[in-house]
């Protein structure tokens, strides 16, 4: 489990918000793959609150390499 704070949801793609892609490096994650970071609640300034479900790569070092390359 990461201790990093998640990036702002407004900076993420729809795939990242839905847990289809890694929240850090944007690599596609298969269904059921990746590490679930837990349900996140967002309350936009204008609009209804909603949940999103970030996931990250199971291989953290490879993920970091992709993120920083
Ligand atoms: Zn990743």
Describe the structure.
With 69 residues, the protein is an alpha+beta fold. The protein has one domain. 19% of the residues lie in helices and 14% in strands. It contains two helices and four strands. It has helices at residues 14-17, 60-68, and strands at 35-36, 40-42, 50-52, 55-56. The strands form two sheets. Strands 1-4 form a two-stranded antiparallel sheet. The chain has a two-stranded antiparallel sheet with strand order 2-3. A hairpin with a 7-residue loop joins strand 2 (40-42) and strand 3. The two termini are 23 Å apart.
Number of domains: 1
Kindly report the oligomeric state of this protein.
Answer: single chain
Helix proportion of residues, in percent? 10-25%
Radius of gyration: 12 Å
Secondary structure: elements and pairs:
Elements: H1 14-17, E1 35-36, E2 40-42, E3 50-52, E4 55-56, H2 60-68
Antiparallel strand pairs: 1-4, 2-3
Short description:
The chain has 69 residues and is α+β, with helices and mostly antiparallel strands.
Tags for this model:
two-stranded antiparallel ribbon, globular, 69 residues, two-stranded antiparallel sheet, 2 helices, 4 strands, alpha+beta, binds zinc ion
């Amino acid at each position: 489990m990461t201790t990093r704070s998640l990036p702002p949801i407004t900076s993420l793609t729809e795939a990242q918000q839905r847990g289809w892609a890694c929240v850090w490096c944007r690599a596609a994650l298969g269904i059921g793959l990746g590490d679930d970071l837990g349900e996140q609640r967002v309350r936009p300034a204008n609009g209804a609150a909603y949940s999103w479900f970030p996931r990250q790569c199971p291989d953290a070092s490879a993920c970091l390499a992709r993120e920083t390359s």
